[in-house]
Design goal:
elongated, 18 helices, NADH Oxidase, alpha+beta
Length: 385
């Protein structure tokens, strides 16, 4: 028998020490069957179509709902969390309309890469010490991390459906280590939201049909990141200057005020992503976009969808200085970009100036959807939302 096969309690202590040394702020332990209500909640979410165009959620539903389907040999699940709370209130940036609001989590390196690297360090030491198999997962894998984190005692799923910690609030990156080792589990955390509705009431697009339920199709994070086509008209003005994600429901969580000091390994935001100017972002071509967002999660959505989001922010900015940049994008190679440039200009120009521009530009536009944007803005056609 391997001498390295430590007793379960000593193994727990070892993992906790390694987790903190590696940069994680919280760690908890659970079993694969510790979140029995999660599959039904996932099924309801999918049946209601609230996942929008995220077809991968349907395709991986079975593996996502049942960890043993993902890996039959798993006996214990280690859930780890990293505090990424901002140094300032991200909601203040929403008032600076010539600036772009990027979700706090996306202001530095792609956290998937960072966390996976740290998980592998811990998992490797666990495997060597216990003589057991391990697998690591970040949220790109079909793992229901938030219910499992709740079962592991790290926090609870708040009314905004995100995990809330009494020690860190709503700002947590999550990762997991599956293992064949038997490790004593923690007690499930209880719900401490009480009667608070702050996260529900602040949502700009009413994306919560009920407490603890999210309709992704109305969520700005989904619309700016996952949604591939034009943003439905009903949400454009409500997006304000949010160009990648939305932090509103996280930022108002009262539990944030109890957040402990983050570890020194916390990711620090890039200064140029804290409040970038819309004019600078609108100037990015594909090469410039890829270079500027190298190593960033933002790079994954591609330049055209990103510029789509920035143009909506420009349309909401009420700043005539943005008109020239938006006009230039009427010539863009992407119909997606040209279409939303039409909308942005309809918000920035006077009615007569916009009609004069439409008389010149609509006739030479070959794409049906872009022409439809012109017609919608002129009030001559209804766009299918």
């Amino acid at each position: 028998m391997l001498a390295a096969q430590a007793a379960p309690e000593r193994l727990r202590t070892f993992i906790e020490q390694e987790a903190r040394a590696t940069g994680f702020d919280v760690v908890g332990f659970t079993t694969p069957d510790a979140a029995p209500a999660a599959p039904a909640r996932l099924a309801h979410f999918l049946e209601e179509g609230r996942h929008g165009t995220m077809a991968w959620m349907e395709e991986t539903a079975m593996r996502r709902a049942h960890p043993r389907t993902l890996w039959p040999d798993v006996r214990s699940i280690i859930m780890l969390g990293m505090n990424y709370g901002p140094d300032e209130d991200p909601l203040e940036l929403l008032e600076e309309k010539d600036r772009a609001a990027i979700s706090v989590y996306a202001r530095n390196r792609d956290y998937h890469d960072v966390i996976k690297g740290r998980l592998k360090q811990i998992a490797g030491k666990l495997a060597a010490r216990a003589g057991e198999d391990v697998k690591v997962f970040v949220d790109t894998a079909p793992v229901m991390e938030k219910p499992l984190a709740e079962a592991a005692g790290i926090g609870w799923q708040g009314k905004h459906t995100n995990l809330v910690s009494r020690e860190i609030g709503s700002w947590l990156f999550l990762g997991s280590i599956f293992t064949t080792a038997e490790i004593p589990p923690d007690k499930t955390e209880t719900d401490h939201c009480g009667s608070c509705r702050a996260c529900l009431d602040i949502c700009p697009t009413d994306a919560f049909p009920a407490p603890y339920q999210l309709d992704a199709r109305r969520c700005i994070s989904y619309l700016t990141i996952e949604h591939k086509g034009p943003i439905p008209h009903e949400f454009r003005a409500k997006m304000g200057n949010r160009i990648y994600g939305c932090d509103d429901c996280l930022a108002v969580c009262p539990w944030n005020k109890f957040a402990q000091e983050a570890s020194e390994a916390k990711l620090q935001a890039r200064e140029d992503l804290k409040e970038p100017r819309l004019t600078d972002l609108l100037a990015l071509d594909d090469a410039g976009f890829r270079a500027f967002f190298s190593g960033s999660p933002i790079k994954r959505i591609g330049r055209d969808r990103f510029i789509r989001n920035v143009l909506i922010a420009a349309g909401n900015a009420e700043d005539p200085a943005l008109i020239a940049s938006c006009k230039r994008l009427l010539e863009d190679a992407s119909p997606l970009v040209r279409g939303v440039a039409v909308w942005a200009l309809s918000q920035l120009l006077s009615e007569q100036a916009f009609r004069d521009l439409a008389e010149k530009r609509r006739a030479v536009e070959a794409d049906r959807e872009v022409r439809s944007e012109w017609d919608y803005a002129l009030g001559t056609e209804t766009v299918d939302e």
